[in-house]
Amino acid sequence: MKDITECHARLRGLFNITVTPFRADGAFDHAGLARNIERVIGLGFDGILIGGTYGEFPAMSTEERAALFRRVMDIVGDRVPVMLCTADSDVRVVRELTTLAGDLGGLPMVTPPYVSEVTDAQIVTFFRDVVPLSRTGVLVYNAPGIGITLSPSTLEQLADIPGVVGVKQGDLSPTAIDQIANRLFGRIRLFCASDLAFLGPVMCGFDGVSSTNSCALPELILATYRALEAGDATTARNLHRLWYPLRALAREFGQPQTTKAAMNLRGFSGGSVRPPLRDLEVGKVAAVAEALQKLATDRRSCVDLAA
Fold this sequence. Notes:
The chain is of the alpha/beta class. The protein has helices at residues 4-10, 30-43, 62-76, 91-103, 120-130, 152-159, 174-184, 199-203, 218-229, 233-242, 244-253, 257-265, 282-296; strands spanning 13-18, 47-50, 82-85, 107-110, 138-142, 164-169, 189-192, 208-211. α5 links the parallel β4 (107-110) and β5 (138-142). α3 runs parallel beside α4 (91-103), α11 (244-253) runs antiparallel to α13 and α12 crosses α13 (282-296). The longest helix is centred in the first third of the chain and has 15 residues, at 62-76.
């Protein structure tokens, strides 16, 4: 993407949150990463997200993250929009990676600076300083998991900053979704940050959703999203219900290790996680395998374990 206008125009639909496949020794599996990217693009996903929380960016050095950005953009080219997570606790790193991501034609995804007792005014100032560094604009990531939840009123202030093209909303409480969908609709792009419960936000008018579990269930989650996009809420609901057992395991066992285990069971390149995370133990992998086997017996899921 060459500029903010193009980025805003193309930022919609289902984005795959691509996991970073590490080998058991912690090295990158570059060939596996390329296969995973080609799979979702080939199926018709609208975009991808690289190096986010479930992409394990906190376990990477700044140099590794920059190299990952360059490699992914070489693979993808301009075929689909690419969100590149440039969040960090060190503002200097955020500035460096945000500039790089924009120069590469990706869309930098930035969280508030996760330091203790930062004020709303300081967060707004931070984004005013960072956004102009990217020629493609910035996607604000409202990520409660870092210990900071941006209120709808703060998001409204951020939406007024030239170059903020969207928000990836991680606070999925009904009140927040209702306020954001109605206050910000049409001003910036609105993305639901979780595939665990995306039906409501999309029905409220959100422009898209980012999905980690689509690394393991790309066919099913894509079919669910397309049904919802076409206005067939009944089909979308029924498809979404199919993989509840896997969602329950993901909540219990943690992410991205559960998705990586499911990918490996399907013959995809999930690889391992980096410390401090740990790969699932044998018993937990067996539980994931059982859930996948059950899912594959339902033809509606489109999940073929023999493929």
